[in-house]
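User: Okay, second chain of the day. Same drill as before: sequence in, structure tokens out.
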Amino acid sequence: MPGIFNAKYFNPEVFGKYIETVPRVKQNAFLSSGVFRERNDIKAMFNDQTGGNFATFPMKGRIGGTPDNYDGSTNITADTIGTYSQSAIVVGRAHSWEEKDFTYDITRHDFMNDIASQVSEYWDDVDQTTVLATLEGIFGVTTDGFNTKHTYDISGASDPKVGATTLNSAINQASGANKNIYKMAIMHSDVATNLENLQVLTYWKETDANGVQRDLALATWNGRTVIVDDEVPVDTSGDAPKYTTYILGAGAFGYCNVGAKVPYETARDATTAGGKDLLISRQRKVFAPMGFSFVQPSTAIISPSDAQLKTAARWTVVKDTTGSKYFDSKAIPFARIISLG
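Assistant: Same drill. Structure tokens below.
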């Protein structure tokens, strides 16, 4: 693509379409497993607001109530379906990459083309970092006992490492009969290695253009998709490291790409270091965890940093519109395992 990074010829719309055609392994894994539930209604809400970065929208609960005795004399009582209110914030991120003219002069290689081919993978990693930061934040929430109910801690057990039955026990503790909602796990490579040794983890494979097959950082465990990432929390304060494995269910995150005015553009600096080209990229996305609302501090956050997403005080379990009832804990599709490997 000679000249595509010259600002005069650069077409951001075409480039954006090109980026989306590059296989996005991690994003596709989230989408195909159903963990990301695309919410075009949230995107439309921001559009209707003529922009914005924070929105509150209704959530439907489930019907319930005690059945009445139908004996010809007992009155039939009525209940209503509960409605809840959830708040979500847009996460905005931006970055740029540059290449000096002099690098091309001495190598005769256009590294900007290499940069272009890696942009989609870069944003995949950024999105996963956002997800992990959010998970760390919500698992600090003690409201309605969420973090206790949904944490399966075997670090102090006689066998403190994950095994063939650990996943099933963890999701049963979190959601009981509703445990089949869980579709994906994210774990540290040390935990994955332990499961490999037990022969209960199978890696996905990819064949490149040269016919060479390699393992991806994706696997399956008891039928659930597994992402291996060493960015999950590891507590090293004790005698042995404690690893966190997250388990996510269907619809765990309401997801939408809100979009930026200029998602991709180029710039030319003709004087610095003899001249250089820059590729700038921006994105604004919503990752709304099911059953949780983002809590704004007294000074409102425009776009939360990873550190703010990790802060438990920024999250709370959703309540119904009366403010008296929490969202059903067993319907919240998040669980975690704490283990020594």
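The mean pLDDT is 85.

User: Thanks, on to the next one.
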